[in-house]
UniProtKB/TrEMBL annotation:
<keyword id="KW-0371">Homeobox</keyword>
<dbReference type="GO" id="GO:0003677">
    <property type="term" value="F:DNA binding"/>
</dbReference>
<dbReference type="Pfam" id="PF13551">
    <property type="entry name" value="HTH_29"/>
</dbReference>
<protein>
    <submittedName>
        <fullName>Homeodomain-like DNA binding domain-containing transcription factor</fullName>
    </submittedName>
</protein>
<keyword id="KW-0238">DNA-binding</keyword>
<dbReference type="InterPro" id="IPR009057">
    <property type="entry name" value="Homeodomain-like_sf"/>
</dbReference>
Length: 95
């Protein structure tokens, strides 16, 4: 394991834990994380991006209303859209 670690440029602990994970699960992929699931899917984000490109001066209220009227499965709050836009740096946060 030490030789492998040197070849890969990682610590022996990393090699050991990766080997153990493979023996236990059959894969070296990361385990799923706990926590609250995301409210917006990638498809939802794409929809919001398209709407912003079509109507650059849209308000949060308009995006919120349009999104919730077109999507029956998921309801979001306007603050979700605000946080998404701030995170993607599409708007400036004044807080």
């Amino acid at each position: 394991q030490n030789e492998i670690a040197k070849l890969l440029g990682v610590s022996p602990k990393c090699v050991s834990s990766t080997k153990k994970r493979y023996e236990e699960t059959g894969t070296v992929s990361d385990r799923s994380r706990s926590g609250r699931p995301r409210k917006l899917t990638l498809r939802d984000e794409s929809y919001i991006f398209r709407e912003i490109r079509k109507y650059p001066s849209s308000s949060y209220q308009k995006l919120y209303t349009d999104f919730n009227s077109k999507t029956q499965a998921v309801r979001i709050r306007k603050y979700t859209i605000m946080r998404f836009l701030q995170k993607k740096r599409l708007i400036v946060s004044y807080s």
